[in-house]
Amino acid sequence: MNDCSHSKPTVTLWVRAGVDGVRCGGCPVCQQLFMILLCKSDAGVLNFEVKTTNPYRPNFAFSSAGLRHVPALVHDDQQFDETDEIIEYLDNTFPQPDLTCNNVEALNTVRDLFSRFCFFVKAVDKGPANLESALAKLNAFLLKTKTKFLCGDQLTHLDCSILPKLHHIRLVVERFTNFQIPRTFSGVWKYLKTGYECDVFTRSCPCDEEILLHWSDRPDTPNLSSVEVKKYSSQSEILQMDSSNSDSKLVLPVPEKSESSQAKISTMEFLNDLEELTPLIPEALVEHYMNQAGMQDSDPFVKRAIALAAQKFISDILLDSMQKAKFKGLAQVSKKGSSKELRYTLTSEVLEPVLEEFGIEGRKSVFNL
Protein backbone atom coordinates (compact mmCIF):
# COMPACT_ATOMS: atom_id res chain seq x y z
CA MET A 1 0.00 0.00 0.00
CA ASN A 2 1.52 3.34 -0.99
CA ASP A 3 2.00 6.29 1.37
CA CYS A 4 -0.80 8.38 -0.09
CA SER A 5 -3.30 5.61 0.62
CA HIS A 6 -3.56 6.72 4.25
CA SER A 7 -5.24 9.95 3.14
CA LYS A 8 -8.00 8.10 1.32
CA PRO A 9 -11.31 7.42 3.07
CA THR A 10 -11.71 3.86 4.35
CA VAL A 11 -15.03 2.13 3.81
CA THR A 12 -16.16 -1.13 5.40
CA LEU A 13 -18.40 -3.49 3.47
CA TRP A 14 -20.19 -6.20 5.42
CA VAL A 15 -21.17 -9.25 3.38
CA ARG A 16 -22.87 -12.55 4.07
CA ALA A 17 -20.52 -15.14 5.53
CA GLY A 18 -20.04 -18.55 3.98
CA VAL A 19 -20.69 -21.92 5.55
CA ASP A 20 -17.87 -21.60 8.08
CA GLY A 21 -18.81 -18.10 9.20
CA VAL A 22 -15.56 -16.66 7.85
CA ARG A 23 -15.44 -16.97 4.07
CA CYS A 24 -17.45 -14.75 1.76
CA GLY A 25 -20.78 -16.41 1.05
CA GLY A 26 -22.55 -16.83 -2.25
CA CYS A 27 -24.72 -13.70 -2.20
CA PRO A 28 -24.95 -11.99 -5.63
CA VAL A 29 -25.92 -8.60 -4.15
CA CYS A 30 -22.91 -8.70 -1.83
CA GLN A 31 -20.68 -9.33 -4.84
CA GLN A 32 -22.38 -6.48 -6.70
CA LEU A 33 -21.32 -3.98 -4.03
CA PHE A 34 -17.90 -5.62 -3.76
CA MET A 35 -17.41 -4.97 -7.49
CA ILE A 36 -18.51 -1.35 -7.17
CA LEU A 37 -16.00 -0.76 -4.37
CA LEU A 38 -13.24 -2.42 -6.38
CA CYS A 39 -13.97 -0.06 -9.28
CA LYS A 40 -13.79 2.93 -6.93
CA SER A 41 -10.69 1.60 -5.19
CA ASP A 42 -8.86 0.88 -8.43
CA ALA A 43 -9.56 4.48 -9.45
CA GLY A 44 -7.72 5.57 -6.31
CA VAL A 45 -10.60 7.39 -4.59
CA LEU A 46 -10.98 5.16 -1.53
CA ASN A 47 -9.69 2.24 0.48
CA PHE A 48 -12.06 -0.43 1.68
CA GLU A 49 -12.20 -3.60 3.68
CA VAL A 50 -14.64 -6.48 3.48
CA LYS A 51 -15.90 -8.21 6.61
CA THR A 52 -18.21 -11.18 6.88
CA THR A 53 -21.03 -11.96 9.28
CA ASN A 54 -23.82 -14.46 9.62
CA PRO A 55 -26.98 -12.32 9.20
CA TYR A 56 -28.94 -14.69 11.45
CA ARG A 57 -26.29 -14.63 14.18
CA PRO A 58 -24.48 -11.34 13.56
CA ASN A 59 -21.24 -10.71 15.39
CA PHE A 60 -20.89 -7.90 17.90
CA ALA A 61 -19.13 -5.44 15.58
CA PHE A 62 -21.96 -5.71 13.05
CA SER A 63 -24.76 -5.39 15.60
CA SER A 64 -23.11 -2.57 17.53
CA ALA A 65 -23.00 -0.49 14.34
CA GLY A 66 -26.81 -0.60 14.27
CA LEU A 67 -26.89 -2.80 11.16
CA ARG A 68 -29.51 -5.48 10.51
CA HIS A 69 -29.08 -6.70 6.94
CA VAL A 70 -26.23 -7.66 4.63
CA PRO A 71 -24.79 -6.28 2.51
CA ALA A 72 -24.12 -3.23 4.66
CA LEU A 73 -21.75 -0.29 4.44
CA VAL A 74 -20.02 1.77 7.11
CA HIS A 75 -18.13 4.98 6.35
CA ASP A 76 -17.18 7.28 9.21
CA ASP A 77 -20.45 7.86 11.09
CA GLN A 78 -22.64 6.74 8.18
CA GLN A 79 -24.21 3.25 8.17
CA PHE A 80 -26.41 1.73 5.50
CA ASP A 81 -27.92 -1.74 5.14
CA GLU A 82 -30.18 -1.17 2.14
CA THR A 83 -28.60 -1.79 -1.27
CA ASP A 84 -30.11 1.17 -3.12
CA GLU A 85 -29.04 3.52 -0.33
CA ILE A 86 -25.50 2.14 -0.39
CA ILE A 87 -25.16 2.62 -4.14
CA GLU A 88 -26.59 6.14 -3.99
CA TYR A 89 -24.25 7.07 -1.14
CA LEU A 90 -21.17 5.72 -2.92
CA ASP A 91 -22.05 7.53 -6.15
CA ASN A 92 -22.64 10.82 -4.34
CA THR A 93 -19.61 10.57 -2.06
CA PHE A 94 -17.19 8.98 -4.55
CA PRO A 95 -18.52 9.97 -8.00
CA GLN A 96 -15.48 8.67 -9.89
CA PRO A 97 -15.43 6.50 -11.83
CA ASP A 98 -18.94 7.12 -13.09
CA LEU A 99 -20.69 3.74 -13.19
CA THR A 100 -24.06 5.10 -14.30
CA CYS A 101 -25.90 3.23 -17.04
CA ASN A 102 -28.43 5.37 -18.90
CA ASN A 103 -29.24 2.78 -21.55
CA VAL A 104 -32.98 2.27 -21.10
CA GLU A 105 -33.04 -0.67 -23.51
CA ALA A 106 -30.34 -2.46 -21.53
CA LEU A 107 -32.21 -1.87 -18.28
CA ASN A 108 -35.46 -3.20 -19.75
CA THR A 109 -33.67 -6.20 -21.25
CA VAL A 110 -32.48 -7.56 -17.90
CA ARG A 111 -35.35 -6.35 -15.73
CA ASP A 112 -37.04 -9.75 -15.34
CA LEU A 113 -34.03 -12.03 -15.75
CA PHE A 114 -33.29 -12.81 -12.12
CA SER A 115 -36.92 -13.09 -11.03
CA ARG A 116 -37.52 -15.59 -13.86
CA PHE A 117 -34.59 -17.60 -12.57
CA CYS A 118 -35.97 -17.51 -9.01
CA PHE A 119 -39.41 -18.63 -10.19
CA PHE A 120 -37.84 -21.53 -12.07
CA VAL A 121 -35.43 -22.77 -9.42
CA LYS A 122 -38.13 -22.50 -6.73
CA ALA A 123 -40.55 -24.42 -8.99
CA VAL A 124 -43.00 -21.51 -9.14
CA ASP A 125 -42.77 -21.87 -12.91
CA LYS A 126 -43.39 -25.42 -14.11
CA GLY A 127 -40.60 -25.30 -16.65
CA PRO A 128 -37.69 -23.20 -17.93
CA ALA A 129 -39.65 -21.48 -20.72
CA ASN A 130 -39.85 -18.07 -19.01
CA LEU A 131 -36.20 -18.15 -17.95
CA GLU A 132 -35.11 -19.22 -21.42
CA SER A 133 -37.17 -16.40 -22.92
CA ALA A 134 -35.44 -13.86 -20.63
CA LEU A 135 -32.04 -15.27 -21.58
CA ALA A 136 -32.96 -15.13 -25.27
CA LYS A 137 -33.90 -11.48 -24.85
CA LEU A 138 -30.53 -10.77 -23.24
CA ASN A 139 -28.73 -12.74 -25.95
CA ALA A 140 -30.40 -10.78 -28.75
CA PHE A 141 -29.51 -7.49 -27.08
CA LEU A 142 -25.85 -8.47 -26.60
CA LEU A 143 -25.51 -9.65 -30.19
CA LYS A 144 -26.94 -6.36 -31.40
CA THR A 145 -24.82 -4.05 -29.23
CA LYS A 146 -21.48 -5.83 -29.87
CA THR A 147 -19.91 -4.18 -26.81
CA LYS A 148 -17.97 -5.88 -24.02
CA PHE A 149 -20.52 -4.98 -21.38
CA LEU A 150 -24.19 -4.06 -21.31
CA CYS A 151 -23.76 -0.29 -21.64
CA GLY A 152 -20.47 -0.09 -23.49
CA ASP A 153 -16.91 -1.29 -23.09
CA GLN A 154 -16.60 -0.28 -19.43
CA LEU A 155 -18.24 -1.76 -16.35
CA THR A 156 -21.34 0.01 -15.08
CA HIS A 157 -23.72 -0.50 -12.18
CA LEU A 158 -25.83 -2.70 -14.42
CA ASP A 159 -22.94 -5.09 -15.09
CA CYS A 160 -22.05 -5.19 -11.39
CA SER A 161 -25.62 -6.34 -10.77
CA ILE A 162 -26.16 -8.70 -13.71
CA LEU A 163 -22.81 -10.50 -14.01
CA PRO A 164 -22.97 -12.07 -10.52
CA LYS A 165 -26.61 -13.03 -11.05
CA LEU A 166 -25.93 -14.52 -14.47
CA HIS A 167 -23.05 -16.51 -12.98
CA HIS A 168 -25.42 -17.83 -10.30
CA ILE A 169 -27.98 -18.74 -12.95
CA ARG A 170 -25.41 -20.73 -14.92
CA LEU A 171 -24.17 -22.67 -11.90
CA VAL A 172 -27.47 -23.29 -10.14
CA VAL A 173 -29.60 -24.42 -13.09
CA GLU A 174 -26.87 -26.81 -14.21
CA ARG A 175 -26.59 -28.35 -10.74
CA PHE A 176 -30.19 -28.36 -9.51
CA THR A 177 -32.27 -28.67 -12.69
CA ASN A 178 -32.18 -30.33 -16.08
CA PHE A 179 -31.77 -26.97 -17.80
CA GLN A 180 -28.63 -25.28 -19.09
CA ILE A 181 -28.08 -21.94 -20.75
CA PRO A 182 -28.34 -22.91 -24.43
CA ARG A 183 -25.00 -23.01 -26.21
CA THR A 184 -26.65 -21.23 -29.11
CA PHE A 185 -26.90 -18.10 -26.94
CA SER A 186 -23.46 -16.97 -28.05
CA GLY A 187 -24.02 -13.41 -26.85
CA VAL A 188 -24.73 -14.56 -23.29
CA TRP A 189 -21.73 -16.89 -23.22
CA LYS A 190 -19.43 -14.21 -24.61
CA TYR A 191 -20.69 -11.79 -21.95
CA LEU A 192 -20.03 -14.38 -19.24
CA LYS A 193 -16.55 -15.00 -20.65
CA THR A 194 -15.87 -11.26 -20.55
CA GLY A 195 -16.93 -11.24 -16.91
CA TYR A 196 -14.70 -14.20 -16.06
CA GLU A 197 -11.77 -12.36 -17.65
CA CYS A 198 -12.58 -9.14 -15.76
CA ASP A 199 -10.31 -8.61 -12.76
CA VAL A 200 -13.02 -6.81 -10.78
CA PHE A 201 -15.37 -9.76 -11.17
CA THR A 202 -12.88 -12.51 -10.35
CA ARG A 203 -11.51 -10.73 -7.27
CA SER A 204 -14.99 -10.35 -5.81
CA CYS A 205 -16.53 -13.68 -6.82
CA PRO A 206 -17.05 -16.39 -4.19
CA CYS A 207 -16.15 -19.93 -5.15
CA ASP A 208 -18.71 -22.10 -6.95
CA GLU A 209 -19.23 -24.30 -3.89
CA GLU A 210 -20.32 -21.35 -1.76
CA ILE A 211 -22.83 -20.30 -4.41
CA LEU A 212 -24.35 -23.78 -4.58
CA LEU A 213 -24.52 -24.00 -0.79
CA HIS A 214 -26.13 -20.55 -0.68
CA TRP A 215 -28.98 -21.62 -2.96
CA SER A 216 -29.37 -25.02 -1.33
CA ASP A 217 -30.02 -23.29 2.01
CA ARG A 218 -32.76 -21.04 0.65
CA PRO A 219 -36.43 -21.98 1.14
CA ASP A 220 -38.23 -23.75 -1.71
CA THR A 221 -35.03 -24.58 -3.58
CA PRO A 222 -33.61 -28.08 -4.17
CA ASN A 223 -31.46 -29.36 -1.33
CA LEU A 224 -28.02 -30.90 -1.45
CA SER A 225 -27.42 -34.21 0.26
CA SER A 226 -25.43 -34.21 3.49
CA VAL A 227 -22.54 -35.82 1.61
CA GLU A 228 -22.60 -33.06 -1.01
CA VAL A 229 -22.79 -30.34 1.65
CA LYS A 230 -19.73 -31.80 3.37
CA LYS A 231 -17.92 -32.11 0.05
CA TYR A 232 -18.68 -28.55 -1.08
CA SER A 233 -17.86 -27.14 2.35
CA SER A 234 -14.45 -28.79 2.36
CA GLN A 235 -13.73 -27.69 -1.21
CA SER A 236 -14.72 -24.09 -0.59
CA GLU A 237 -11.57 -21.97 -0.69
CA ILE A 238 -11.03 -18.76 1.25
CA LEU A 239 -11.51 -15.78 -1.03
CA GLN A 240 -8.42 -13.57 -1.05
CA MET A 241 -7.58 -10.34 -2.77
CA ASP A 242 -4.19 -9.42 -4.20
CA SER A 243 -3.16 -6.48 -2.05
CA SER A 244 -0.26 -5.74 -4.38
CA ASN A 245 -2.68 -4.69 -7.12
CA SER A 246 -5.11 -2.73 -4.96
CA ASP A 247 -5.29 -0.66 -1.82
CA SER A 248 -8.38 -2.60 -0.83
CA LYS A 249 -8.13 -5.57 1.46
CA LEU A 250 -10.28 -8.44 2.58
CA VAL A 251 -10.60 -8.89 6.32
CA LEU A 252 -11.75 -12.35 7.32
CA PRO A 253 -12.72 -12.26 10.99
CA VAL A 254 -12.19 -15.42 12.99
CA PRO A 255 -15.31 -16.24 14.99
CA GLU A 256 -14.90 -16.40 18.74
CA LYS A 257 -15.16 -19.84 20.28
CA SER A 258 -18.18 -18.80 22.29
CA GLU A 259 -20.06 -17.86 19.11
CA SER A 260 -19.06 -21.12 17.46
CA SER A 261 -20.28 -23.19 20.37
CA GLN A 262 -23.52 -21.25 20.63
CA ALA A 263 -24.23 -21.95 16.97
CA LYS A 264 -24.28 -25.69 17.63
CA ILE A 265 -27.76 -25.87 19.09
CA SER A 266 -29.14 -29.37 19.36
CA THR A 267 -32.61 -30.28 18.22
CA MET A 268 -33.68 -30.90 21.80
CA GLU A 269 -32.54 -27.43 22.91
CA PHE A 270 -34.42 -25.92 20.00
CA LEU A 271 -37.60 -27.76 20.99
CA ASN A 272 -37.22 -26.60 24.58
CA ASP A 273 -36.94 -23.00 23.42
CA LEU A 274 -39.85 -23.51 21.07
CA GLU A 275 -42.08 -24.56 23.95
CA GLU A 276 -41.63 -21.16 25.60
CA LEU A 277 -42.33 -19.11 22.47
CA THR A 278 -45.78 -17.96 21.44
CA PRO A 279 -46.05 -17.30 17.69
CA LEU A 280 -48.21 -14.43 16.49
CA ILE A 281 -49.80 -16.66 13.86
CA PRO A 282 -52.70 -18.62 15.41
CA GLU A 283 -52.46 -22.40 15.51
CA ALA A 284 -55.85 -22.70 13.79
CA LEU A 285 -54.54 -20.78 10.80
CA VAL A 286 -51.47 -23.01 10.61
CA GLU A 287 -53.69 -26.11 10.74
CA HIS A 288 -55.85 -24.71 7.93
CA TYR A 289 -52.91 -24.29 5.55
CA MET A 290 -51.35 -27.57 6.62
CA ASN A 291 -54.59 -29.32 5.68
CA GLN A 292 -54.68 -27.47 2.36
CA ALA A 293 -51.15 -28.68 1.65
CA GLY A 294 -52.09 -32.24 2.56
CA MET A 295 -50.09 -32.30 5.79
CA GLN A 296 -51.51 -34.29 8.68
CA ASP A 297 -49.49 -33.74 11.84
CA SER A 298 -50.88 -33.28 15.33
CA ASP A 299 -47.50 -32.52 16.89
CA PRO A 300 -47.82 -29.04 18.45
CA PHE A 301 -44.09 -28.44 18.03
CA VAL A 302 -44.38 -28.88 14.27
CA LYS A 303 -47.24 -26.39 14.10
CA ARG A 304 -45.36 -23.91 16.26
CA ALA A 305 -42.20 -24.24 14.18
CA ILE A 306 -44.18 -23.60 10.98
CA ALA A 307 -45.84 -20.58 12.58
CA LEU A 308 -42.50 -19.13 13.66
CA ALA A 309 -40.96 -19.70 10.23
CA ALA A 310 -43.90 -17.93 8.58
CA GLN A 311 -43.70 -15.12 11.13
CA LYS A 312 -40.00 -14.64 10.41
CA PHE A 313 -40.64 -14.63 6.65
CA ILE A 314 -43.38 -12.00 6.95
CA SER A 315 -41.25 -9.90 9.32
CA ASP A 316 -38.37 -9.86 6.83
CA ILE A 317 -40.71 -8.65 4.09
CA LEU A 318 -42.16 -5.94 6.33
CA LEU A 319 -38.72 -4.76 7.47
CA ASP A 320 -37.47 -4.53 3.88
CA SER A 321 -40.66 -2.69 2.91
CA MET A 322 -40.12 -0.22 5.75
CA GLN A 323 -36.57 0.43 4.55
CA LYS A 324 -37.78 1.10 1.02
CA ALA A 325 -40.53 3.41 2.30
CA LYS A 326 -37.96 5.37 4.32
CA PHE A 327 -35.67 5.59 1.31
CA LYS A 328 -38.50 6.90 -0.88
CA GLY A 329 -39.51 9.45 1.78
CA LEU A 330 -43.08 8.17 2.08
CA ALA A 331 -43.48 9.02 5.75
CA GLN A 332 -46.58 10.83 6.98
CA VAL A 333 -46.32 13.09 10.02
CA SER A 334 -48.83 12.24 12.71
CA LYS A 335 -49.44 14.51 15.69
CA LYS A 336 -49.89 12.80 19.01
CA GLY A 337 -50.44 15.38 21.70
CA SER A 338 -47.52 17.77 21.68
CA SER A 339 -45.23 15.33 19.88
CA LYS A 340 -44.97 14.28 16.26
CA GLU A 341 -44.23 10.84 14.89
CA LEU A 342 -43.63 9.43 11.44
CA ARG A 343 -46.01 6.81 10.10
CA TYR A 344 -45.63 4.65 7.02
CA THR A 345 -48.37 3.05 4.94
CA LEU A 346 -47.69 -0.26 3.25
CA THR A 347 -48.60 0.23 -0.41
CA SER A 348 -48.28 -1.98 -3.46
CA GLU A 349 -45.66 0.44 -4.82
CA VAL A 350 -43.41 -0.43 -1.87
CA LEU A 351 -44.41 -4.07 -1.41
CA GLU A 352 -44.20 -5.41 -4.97
CA PRO A 353 -40.42 -4.91 -5.51
CA VAL A 354 -39.74 -6.42 -2.08
CA LEU A 355 -41.85 -9.47 -2.88
CA GLU A 356 -39.98 -9.83 -6.17
CA GLU A 357 -36.68 -9.98 -4.27
CA PHE A 358 -38.15 -12.87 -2.28
CA GLY A 359 -39.19 -14.62 -5.49
CA ILE A 360 -42.90 -13.85 -5.04
CA GLU A 361 -44.97 -12.41 -7.85
CA GLY A 362 -47.32 -9.81 -6.39
CA ARG A 363 -50.72 -9.70 -8.05
CA LYS A 364 -53.31 -7.00 -7.50
CA SER A 365 -56.86 -7.99 -6.71
CA VAL A 366 -59.51 -7.45 -9.36
CA PHE A 367 -60.95 -4.45 -7.51
CA ASN A 368 -57.50 -2.77 -7.60
CA LEU A 369 -57.11 -3.00 -11.37
UniProtKB/TrEMBL annotation:
It is a single-pass membrane protein. It comes from the Eukaryota. GO terms for molecular function: chloride channel activity. The keyword Transmembrane helix applies. InterPro entries: CLIC_N (IPR053823), Glutathione-S-Trfase_C_sf (IPR036282), TAF10 (IPR003923), Thioredoxin-like_sf (IPR036249). It is found in: Membrane. Keywords: Membrane, Transmembrane, Transmembrane helix. One of its GO terms (cellular component) is apical plasma membrane. Residues 9-95 form the CLIC N-terminal domain. One of its GO terms (biological process) is DNA-templated transcription initiation. Belongs to the chloride channel CLIC family. This is Chloride intracellular channel exl-1. The lineage of its organism: Eukaryota, Metazoa, Ecdysozoa, Nematoda, Enoplea.
